[in-house]
Amino acid sequence: ANRWQGSLILETTDAYAVALSKAKPELSEHYRVATPDWTCLQQFINKDQAYALADQCGVPHPVLVRAKCDDDLAEAIERIPFPVMLKPVRSHEFVKEFGKKMFFANNAEELKKRFAQAQSAGHEVILQEVIPGTEFRALERVQVYINSHGDYAFKLFNVKLRQTPANFGVMRVGQSVRPNAEIDELA
């Protein structure tokens, strides 16, 4: 802290965001921490809360079902057409355990097996419909930074050029693109 007093700290992954957010009061005594406070950040880290927030704000998203037990799983099998993604509520913890962002199930048997695997490891999950897309030039995200005055300081729109694994993976090669007005408004 004595060499970097006042430096800006930005997180690069969910795991770092959680650590910085929880330690923000102490870190802020020496650094400028851009990561939101934990009460705010957990709405985005916990995917079920993020989707609930999207619903409140009118932001469209795929059909999903929160699955806490076998009854929820049975309901999901009836509601969501296959293939289905079994996604963790807290992605960074799931990736640490399984080495992947989510499980993909082509049928009910695969889904039941993957659900049991996630439950036995203690992971809360959501089941989500798969919206077919493209492997190349898929819109990844808009990144927004808001300064200490509450003004937009920076927005970056980018697309995936290569991802691992294909179709649903982490961006490995990307390209910044011109702003997309619809996504800008939703963000």
Globular, elongated, flat, extended or rod-shaped: what is the shape? globular
Distance between the termini: 34 Å
* Structural class by SSE content: alpha+beta
Report the mean per-residue pLDDT as an integer: 88
Strand content: 25-35%
Describe the largest sheet: 4 strands, antiparallel
Point out poorly predicted stretches: none
**Element-by-element helix/strand order:** EHHEHHEHEHEHEEEEH
Radius of gyration: 18 Å
* Quaternary: single chain
Please estimate the helix content. Answer: 25-40%
Write a concise synopsis of the structure shown.
This protein is of the alpha+beta class and 187 residues long.
Could you explain the architecture of this structure?
This protein has 187 residues and is an alpha+beta fold. Helix content is 37%, strand content 27%. The chain is built from 8 helices and 9 strands. The chain has helices spanning 14-22, 24-27, 38-45, 47-57, 70-79, 91-98, 108-120, 181-186, and strands at 8-9, 32-33, 64-67, 84-88, 103-105, 125-129, 138-146, 152-164, 170-177. Strands 3-6-4-5 form a 4-stranded antiparallel β-sheet. Strands 7-8-9 form a 3-stranded antiparallel β-sheet, with no helix packed on it. The protein starts with 7 loop residues before the first strand and ends with a helix. The model has no long low-confidence stretch (mean pLDDT 88).
